[in-house]
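Why does this matter for the project? Reviewers at the last site visit asked to see concrete outputs rather than summary tables. In response, this paragraph embeds two records directly. Each consists of the residue sequence and, immediately after it, the corresponding structure tokens. Nothing has been edited or filtered.
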Amino acid sequence: MAVLGEALRITGGAIGQLLSQPFYYIFLIGLLLHYRRQGLLERKLFNIRVHVYAGRVIRTVITGLIIGVILSAIMLGIGIHIEKELIWCLGIIIVLLSLIRLRLAHLMDALAVLVILHVALLLAPSWQPAGWLGEAVQAIRHADLPGLLVIGVLLQVAEAILFRMQGPGLSSPVVIEGKRGKPVGAYAMEAFWPVPLWLLMPAAGGFMLPWSPLHSGEFWSGGAAITALPVMIGCSILTQSRLPVDKARIVSRRLLLSSLVLLVLAAVALWWAPLAVPAIWIAVIWREVIVYLSRREELESIPLYTETLRGLRVLDVIPGSPADELGIRAAETVYKVNGVPVHHPQSLHEALRMNPAFCKLEILNIHGESKFLQRAIYAGDHHQLGMIFAPDDQAPVSPDIQQLSAFHLLGRPRTRRLSGGTGESSRNMQIEATGLPSGSVKETAPAETDTDTSAAADSASASEANGILPKRSRRAGSKK
């Protein structure tokens, strides 16, 4: 009973340490504001909130707690320790970095700043201010950099796994300016998790460790206490040329590869401390290289979520909507509705009104293969069956994607219309010029274009070149 009572006392103290940390509440508030902003942006871009973000907040908080408990158990066994003053220093650095860019509010970036302060203070050993500043200076001078490196690397491993598992589900559809100056659909994969860590702290008169830590065993002869270190982990990635699942797999694989190398460096740094300084900066530079490679690949790839001359390209599907129940997915194309080819949302509405109680859809998947779906239509169903389509030339775009700072979370998201908009997409102009109903317009192959052709036309031409056309149409063309 005495052992159980001591364990409960330590557990209660650890929970109390977390609840007394203001930075954990700051991270939770930042998470709420982030998802609130995503909901407001979706309403501005698509006139509807695509996802319910309350569930996402709860999901990320619970996941962060589970990851925090697992990593804390590992670090308690290793014997990673931290001073209270250092917790405040790291929290302040993370908050300040978030004012520059949200993606910089990461423990590894904060450690890079701490390394600079650590080296600068070692070069000025005579400077020792009084009061709380002096305590902070002393804590930075004697910071356990190898232990902090282990914390950062373990968090990056958890981040890579979580981004692979939950990143696609936490992504949000957006509209951005393409490289040709036209609106392009994309996914903002901005996934963040607040993770509370419980670490050991040397304390005279504290509890005695029932195990022998692998790191800094001499610190625990006088007793130990548990303190809380709240951190944020996550990634901010934009994709306009891949499905979120595919993008998450690529980024996660690169993060895991870098983490394996950094784990080796961190293990060596536990025995040779000077290695921790370059290893922390290698970790930060490696993360920036991963972000750079992702952006370069997106710029060099053909946008996936653009208008096509043969149907309506789906950008996203509202969860729980008729389209979601039918199994329609992002990047698929609505080719025919009730046997009528559709070219723009208005022709979709007209085709649906042909049979108000039932609809039959011909969908082209991402590989160009046809699938046929049917469903009854009920009162209250979304007018587009819950599908969000790729933007046309007049669609508003979000200019702040991947440039967000903490200041952006406090205001309303900005959108703007591109000056190159023509008032109607080229396809709609072709349909209207015929003066015929949308279903009776004959589709023609796009003419050859110059270097100023829009990204939508480029994507449609590439789709035709890849054979993204119903097999029946191809056979009909061959007979002619």
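We now turn to the second protein, recorded in exactly the same manner.
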Amino acid sequence: MLKKLLAKYNIFYGWFMVLVGILIMGVAYGTVFNCFSLFTIPVSEGMGYTRQAFATSLTIIFIFFTIISVFSGKIFQKIKLHTVMCICAVVLPIAYFCNSLCTKIWQFYVLAAVQGICIPILSFTAFSIIIANWFEDRRGLAMGFTFMGSGFGGFVLNLLASTWLANHGFAFAFRVLGIIMAAVLVPLVFFVLKVSPEDIGMKALGAQENKEGGASVELYGPMLNKAMGGSNFWLVVMTAILIGFTASTLAQSITPHITDCGFDPVYAARINAGYFGFLCFCKITMGFAYDKLGMKPTTIIAMLMVALGLVALYFGTYKAAHIFVILGSGGCAAGSVALPMLTQAACGNRDFSSINGIVTAGNTLGGALCPFITNAIYDAKGSYNVALLLAVALIAVTILLILLIRVLKKDAAAA
């Protein structure tokens, strides 16, 4: 029925899958990752942990996210992607809800491992494949809209969770967020999501035109084993690691650092929500930018925006700087929108799923290092300022790596 309705108004069904992706990523990634910083101070102080001890649970999430991303290609060869997503849609809300029941730090760590396994299957790793299945044309725009979901979820849920934390405590907030997650994930993943257009007798956007023109979609680039023997692959992986670290440093430091600067926690959470709200907009515009400007200029502009946000957060005692912290979120879209585009530009599409899994793993590895290092610096120095300056320096290295990446030409790759 929906398929016929969309066809009546000449709307490609794949855009409905983009909407589904926005909602799934919003409650999954948007809750687990983008709301984490809201809990750092309440849980640490309420349970008597150091910030580094509690932040280690985020590092564990990232580590397992990385492991699953690395092996995602092999996993999806043995088990259907949709089947794995259905399992994770049930397990993830339960694990997140159980955070409210923890009385020991190791319990947070165990639940973090479970969440880390589920999140990539319900976010970037899965939807990089799903959007690639549905879109041959306008893929950058579709990626931008879909990955906007993590920022959209962060924006909405930060506003709600900050109120629940202030009025009812962190246990209540964990429970309500877990219930919301289940209410959205289970029906959408089980009954609405379609991994491929072939599942409902359709073709990807652009595939029909190619067929009518007598041409098929050209596969180019190396397989994973061969790609790993070249410098281009490792340049992309190192870039992904640094993007993960620097973007996560900005995202995870906003709420605790602004609170440490003397501002009310609810105000700090609103700045964090503004960050994710602007991130939504920038993920869309970044999709346009990749289609119009190309890979390198867009990614470099993004990294400069992250640097702006980090410098502004360094001067977080000044309220006027907070608007630039929000603007810095635009560059953090590079961690989701940029990497699939960067991977295909550098390594082609022949073995995209396997190569992109490694690149995504690199990105999450950078994110895994972030909470451990930044909170260790905080515990040693009593401030996040040194960590913020370290991230700015690493952005300079990231830009250099981007400049060194060679864009793969289809003709040369096929030869």
